[in-house]
């Protein structure tokens, strides 16, 4: 039995044929791509949430080119080092599964056995993730209502995704680990300089989080050189600024043919208290 729970009654879900089913016979079909939709409309409202098709495709195109591979490698080493044999790894807000799949590969290359789960509120994103890696269990679900059993996970990953401390604390075992990736102060500084009249540095919040002990931080900083308009556009549409950009900024962006910009990530680790 896995760790997914019924979003209606919170009972454990078992696989039966092409569905997940609970004791109260609530049933959730597994899509052909392999993910299960555990989103209830009362948790999302009527509007479409999460990343849309264009954003999912842009992220996939960009990440596939390896621009963020130093972060991927540091993440894989960190998660692998924190995972015990028989452990459960959970990626909350997994997007199209680039990092989730990389962790799966890294675990497979080690002598550790572990199950990996991923959720994202965007069905388009989890569908792409499920197609990418059959060996990971993906569900459409919100990080604010996680359909997973209490204290079922050993390592939780939250990578550039919304944070829900209560849910992360609930699903992690006592002593379990949380690995969080956030942009550092200078992340994409030259991209912002090229697009905005008054660019601002990213604000990095204090590391302390309720219910968790902060155990470490890795700073991952380097420069990337983009020499195609498409990569620059893809990178921009992965950022939160994408939503807030006016016409003047769009035009400046479209006129950029090459760009050297700083990458600045922080990879934080926590222990659930
Ligand atoms: C910046 S992307 C990061 C995706 C992935 N972790 C990565 O680093 O490639 C943020 C992701 O959070 C998802 N998201 C937004 N709100 C969410 C929520 N309430 N629950 C789960 N996922 C959410 C979006 O759909 C998107 O895939
Ligand atoms: Zn149920």
Overall geometry comes to: globular
Helix share of residues?
A: 25-40%
Strand content: 25-35%
What is the count of β-strands? 11
CATH class membership: Alpha Beta
Mean pLDDT: 94
Q: Can you walk me through this structure?
A:
With about 270 residues, the chain is an alpha/beta fold. It has one domain: Vaccinia Virus protein VP39 (Rossmann fold), CATH 3.40.50. It is built from 9 helices and 11 strands. An 8-stranded mixed β-sheet has the order 4-7-6-5-8-9-11-10, with helices on both faces. It has a 3-stranded antiparallel β-sheet with strand order 1-2-3, with no helix packed on it. A hairpin with a 2-residue loop joins strand 1 and strand 2 (about 20). The longest helix is centred in the N-terminal third of the chain and has 14 residues, at about 70-80. The model has no long low-confidence stretch (mean pLDDT about 95). The structure holds S-adenosylmethionine and zinc ion (ZN). S-adenosylmethionine binds near residues 94 and 159.
